[in-house]
Specification:
With 735 residues, the chain is an alpha+beta fold. It is 49% helix and 16% strand. Strand 13 and strand 14 form a beta hairpin.
């Protein structure tokens, strides 16, 4: 352990300085007696954490002060939240109990801190600890959204100070952040925090790309600032002439959003034009907001030609998280598209501070989209038997989706995520209507349940008392509410069928003279590869397992063949080795380490890539790239199954499969030039090649075998120099 030189006097001085900075941040919301309350919380936190230090060697108290500061300054929360932020780790890490907190600070503070305290004790290794924690945190959202907001502040500070952590912990926390916390910040309207969380996650999961984009942005900074100044000067001038009070400035886009654009469109950094957005913030009374926003829009589009397909009006119909703004994309003075965001001071505060600002302005807009969303979360959490992982996946899917607006026959407006179907709409109206739905009329035309809805559709649902939810419904519903209700109905139905199967199995085992007990039932379930006894009973009832199959089982027991349970014992053996720390890091390409692994086909890792191991239930250890599209979900959901992995220093001469996506101008002989470079110059084998050409644009997907990352990068550089090729990227899966 590294020894730190500790200067107690200097640290105490620094703690006092940080505490005073926190009080300054709280000043706008302080009322009589609040300062004393914050002081009591600070004193308790200071005393409780006095012997604790962070990984960096700093006193632990720096962390709760920083979390409280983020909650006050960047989210705009009040005294109760500041108290909870200061005490958020006290129950988890020290001897102080929730009862102590309740006695000193009251029920409300104790309840919020309970929501912030992780679940402790034994958990099912097939479930996910992180998913359970996330679910617990959301349960408290039903009572108090401040739990989530403080948790986001806590996560943001942990991400900002993560450089002292072990690499595998950095990866797990960064993946969890991009998978769950960034979308949650987005949904609560905290755009600045969402962008920073995404950027910081990327800094750890894909450091090379992050550094590359950051460097490129820095190189072009002066040029960008000059462009922004030229663009906004005439806008400011006209706004002043017309007597409109407004701030106009350029705001750079986040590194993550730039990378996302490069990845989605398969374009290099140089071709991402909207590296920044122009923001116009108007100072105007609430009753004139809409008029003024459109007036400014008119001024901007008189100066610069707008792209009619890129107008987004969230002033007339705010987003579900309360976000209001007018976005347009216009052609700038140098022939380049520029995004312009127009909003008022009030709208800007809601965009920056999200839910906290939304509360402040709530009186004028009582039934907002955000309140409706929290109500949906409450409904979703009301089905307690739902598996935590299913819950997190469904919830995640509904976090980032854009909304569409659908009307009932009576003209009531219903908000649904983009891609929602008629069946989603039925469940949104009422669970019973969804469960008995047989069809729908969209704009007076009869459509099936799976019909995807469009913005502005009017929908009437047709039901029948004979209808019950079907398994295949899960394939075309997108809302978490519909998925959750269908799953619980199917589960109930399955349970009824399994009860019958149990009786049938009991009779059959009796005729085979096999004792019906828990041990034998588990052995039979294992033999037939069923994860639980309920699955076994269900399959018996459905006739998938008959007396003949059971005789085969009885025979295999007599001859004592391990049968099909061998693999699960192999996996549990691996788990045991890992738990005993016999396996610390998997060395890929090292023949001496007796661990079976396979390379994941979703991301085809090759030597030189940053990698990790994932212990699957059925396929042993899979090796993934840390930038794999599935990595963040695996690490966020099953952190305890993640293993450190690295390439052995000397690799045997083995070829690894990877994919290249090539875009260019179609030309005679282009394919020939590409295959020549790959096969002749680099002596690399091509496994598959698919080419499409459309209106003079050429797109090719090529799967090649390479030895290491340097060879691949070198090959990509050479291919890029072929005349006519405009873009080349490595792509993840062989599909």
């Amino acid at each position: 352990m590294e020894e730190f030189e500790i200067d107690i006097e200097a640290e105490n001085k620094e703690i006092r300085k940080r505490y005073r900075a926190l009080l300054r941040a709280c000043k706008p919301t302080l009322q009589r007696g609040d300062k004393q309350e914050i002081r009591r919380a600070f004193d308790l936190a200071l005393e409780s954490h006095k012997d604790m230090r962070r990984k960096s060697g700093e006193p632990y108290i720096y962390h709760p002060i920083a979390v409280a500061q983020i909650a006050a300054e960047e989210i705009g929360l009040g005294t109760t939240s500041i108290v909870c932020a200061l005490l958020h780790d006290v129950v988890e890490d020290t001897s102080i109990t929730l009862q102590d907190i309740e006695a000193r600070f009251g029920k409300k503070v104790a309840r919020i801190i309970d929501g912030l305290t992780k679940i402790s004790g034994i958990f099912d290794p097939n479930s996910s600890m992180q998913a359970e924690n996330f679910r617990k945190m959301l349960l408290t959202l039903a009572d108090d959204v401040r739990v989530i907001l403080i948790k986001l502040a806590d996560r943001l500070h942990n991400m900002r100070t993560m450089e002292f952590m072990a690499r595998h912990k950095q990866l797990k926390i960064a993946s969890e952040t991009s998978y769950l916390y960034a979308p949650l910040a987005h949904r609560l309207g905290l755009y600045a925090i969402k962008s920073e969380l995404e950027d910081l996650s990327m800094k750890y999961t894909d450091p090379d790309t992050y550094k590359f984009i950051a460097r490129k942005l820095n190189e072009k900074k002066a040029e960008r600032e000059k462009f922004v100044a030229d663009f906004i000067e005439p806008v400011k001038k006209i706004l002043e002439e017309q007597g409109i009070k407004a701030e106009v400035f350029g705001r750079p886009k986040s590194i993550y959003s730039i990378w996302n654009k490069m990845r989605k469109k398969s374009i290099p950094f140089e071709e991402v034009y909207d590296l920044f957005a122009i923001r116009i913030i108007i100072d105007t009374p609430t009753e004139r907001e809409k008029t003024e926003c459109w007036k400014v829009y008119s001024i901007v589009t008189d100066l610069y030609r707008p792209n009619p397909d890129r107008l987004r009006d969230w002033v007339s119909s705010p987003k579900g998280n309360g976000y209001e703004s007018l976005h347009t994309t216009v052609m700038g003075p140098r022939g380049q598209w520029v995004e312009v965001q127009i909003r008022t001071k009030r709208m800007n505060e809601i965009a920056e501070k999200g839910f906290a600002a939304h509360w402040k302005y709530k009186e004028s807009n009582s039934d907002s989209g955000l309140d409706q969303w929290i109500q949906k979360v409450r409904n979703l959490l009301s089905s307690p038997e739902q598996n935590a992982m299913d819950f997190v996946d469904d919830f995640k899917m509904n976090l980032f989706s854009d909304e569409i607006f659908i009307f009932t026959p009576k003209g009531t407006l219903v908000q649904l995520p983009n891609g929602a179907t008629a069946l989603d709409f039925a469940f949104e109206i009422h669970s019973d209507i969804g469960a008995t739905c047989i069809g729908a009329k969209v704009n007076h035309k009869l459509v099936p349940l799976s019909h995807p809805l469009q913005n502005g559709d009017q929908v009437e649902i047709i039901t029948s008392s004979k209808q019950t939810p079907k398994e295949d419904w899960l394939n075309f519903v997108v809302t978490a509410k519909a998925k959750s209700k269908i799953r619980s109905s199917l589960k109930e139905e399955k349970r009824r069928v399994a009860e019958d199967g149990k009786e049938i199995l009991e009779r059959k085992l009796k005729s085979l003279k096999i004792t019906y007990n828990t041990d034998n039932i588990n052995k039979i379930a294992n033999y037939f590869k069923y994860p639980s006894s309920q699955e076994l009973f269900y399959n018996v009832a459905k006739g998938n397992i008959d007396i003949k199959n059971l005789r085969e089982y009885a025979e295999s027991e007599k001859t004592n063949t391990p049968g099909q349970s061998h693999f699960s014992s192999h996996v549990s053996g691996l788990v045991e080795k890992i738990n005993k720390k016999e396996i610390d890091t998997i060395l890929i390409g090292d023949d001496y380490q007796q661990v079976d692994y396979t390379l994941a086909p979703c991301c085809n890792p090759i030597p030189g890539d940053d990698i990790f191991g994932f212990l699957t239930v059925n396929d042993g250890i899979k090796i993934h790239r840390t930038s794999c599209p599935n990595a963040s979900k695996l690490m966020a959901s099953y952190g305890y199954r993640i293993l450190k992995a690295k390439w052995a220093s000397s690799q045997p001469n083995v070829a690894f499969l990877t994919g290249l996506r090539i875009v260019g101008i179609d030309d005679v002989g282009l394919i020939n030039k590409i295959t020549n470079v790959i096969s002749q110059e680099y002596n690399v084998n091509i496994r598959s090649l698919s080419i499409t050409s459309n209106e003079g644009i050429f797109e090719g997907n090529i799967m090649v075998f390479v030895n290491h990352i340097e060879q691949l990068e070198d090959l990509m550089k050479t291919l890029k120099q072929i005349n006519g090729i405009t873009g080349i990227t490595r792509y993840e899966a062989d599909n």
